[in-house]
Amino acid sequence: MSSVLVAAVVAALLLPPPSDWAQPGYGPGATYYNPAETTLTTENIGKKWEVSTHGAPDCEIGREPLVYRGSLYTSAPGGVAALDPATGNRRWFTRLVRRGITRMAVADGKLVTLTYTCDGQGSFLTAFSAATGGRLWEVPLGGPAQDMVVDRGVVVVDTRPDYTLSTTGYRLGDGGRLWRLTGTRGDGLLSANGRLLLRTEGNTARAVDVTTGRTIWQTPLNWYAVGSDPAGSRFYVSGTGGALTAVNAADGSVIWRSALPAPGVTADDRRLYVPRYRSVLCLDAATGRKLWSVHLPDAAGQPVRAGNLLFSPSGLGSPLSIVDAVTGRGVHGGMPSDQHYPPTVAGGRLFLTDGDRLRAYF
After folding, report:
1. pLDDT tens for residues 321-359?
2. Residue 17 confidence (pLDDT)
3. How far are the Cα atoms of 128, 162, 196 from residue 144, in angstroms, in the given order?
4. pLDDT the model gives residue 59
5. Alpha-carbon torsion 50, 53, 54, 60, what sign?
6. Tag placement on the chain: N or C end, fewer CB within 10 Å?
7. Nearest residue to 148 via CA among 237, 304, 28
8. Which of 311, 329, 221 lies closest to 273, judged by CA?
9. What residues make up the domain containing 249?
10. Contact call for residues 47 and 319 (beta carbons, < 8 A)
11. End-to-end CA distance of the chain
12. Does a structural domain hold residue 209?
């Protein structure tokens, strides 16, 4: 074997594996932080391709894409599709007849979708092969369903069977029901190291185990999760009055409180990024103290951190802000963004959607 070939093989082995973005918010903790993204830079970044994400039925709504093991998963006109992230070409397409997509997640080789019928009378939880798009199992949910998260082999859905509040856990492998907690709401449904924070009747809350539904701790406060830290050791919560609070996910003890309202946060190990009016604020994760802020051209959406960069959408078509995630200094940006659709950054690529078109930049 030539020395040139050996050097090429060694270089390939030393490259980091492509990063994934397998659920809305990156993973089950909804941190909106991809620490594994190390290849995307703002040098010479440009739009490479663009596709439509929904079709003619009024009930179809485009969703933010997911990246998993080298494929891009997205809503598509009339169904759901896997694309080549480099070209936008379809690898497979599965039709969804008169259904819209509420949530998607990819785990253990399965694409899981939470869909609703166009007549508004029902919802379905469905698993497809991530490799082929073949349908593996489907569960009718019997009423509206608002949110979904996948963790530790369990698909958890905030459901309304017969329009009664409940949170239900299903087995990822075959869709079998594992547990149901009636009278709970999964507002801000996410998993902090296998723990869910659910609102309960009487304006109280409790943390439960994602695999069993067993209660871990309870609080008389009306908390709901707006984020978690990458280690899953904290919930970042809001509640009555909207003030942001950092909570120990294991026992519910308060770490710090802020007077700052926060409908959502982005969290790395040392910082929080909070959308606020036409700005993004950076807070010290240890204390909640403000470190710096970035002004945006319009109303702030959910920021995303990937590698050393912070991506902040704003308004409806306003330029995307890209700054250094540590200092807040401007780096690049300018692509059209939408405050309702956080960017997806994985595999050395930036994906932006407005619910109508999906665009790839790299």
Report:
1. 999 999 999 988 899 999 999 999 999 999 999 999 999
2. 59
3. 21, 9, 20
4. 76
5. negative
6. N
7. 28
8. 311
9. 33-361
10. no
11. 34
12. yes
Q: Are 74 and 89 in contact (CB under 8 A)?
A: no
For residue 236, pLDDT beyond 70: yes
Say how many residues make up the chain.
362
Number of structural domains the chain divides into? 1
CATH number at residue 347: 2.130.10.10
**pLDDT value, residue 161:** 66
Task: Report whether 114 contacts 103 (CB < 8 A).
Answer: yes
Answer for the pair 63, 104: CB distance below 8 angstroms, yes or no. yes
> Beta-carbon neighbour count of residue 239 at 10 Å?
18
User: To 5 degrees, how large is the angle CA 147–CA 199–CA 216?
Assistant: 105
Backbone angles phi, psi at 185, to 5 degrees: -130, 130
Question: 21 in a domain, yes or no?
Answer: no
- Amino acid residing at 207: A
In terms of phi and psi (left: phi > 0; alpha: psi -120 to 50; beta: otherwise), the region of 308 is alpha
> 């594996």: which residue's tokens?
17
Residue 17: inside a domain, yes or no?
no
Closest C-alpha among 233, 250, 245, 339 to residue 283: 245
**Residue 75 located in a structural domain:** yes
For residue 72, what are the β-bridge partners?
67, 83
Residue range 40-68: mean pLDDT, rounded: 87
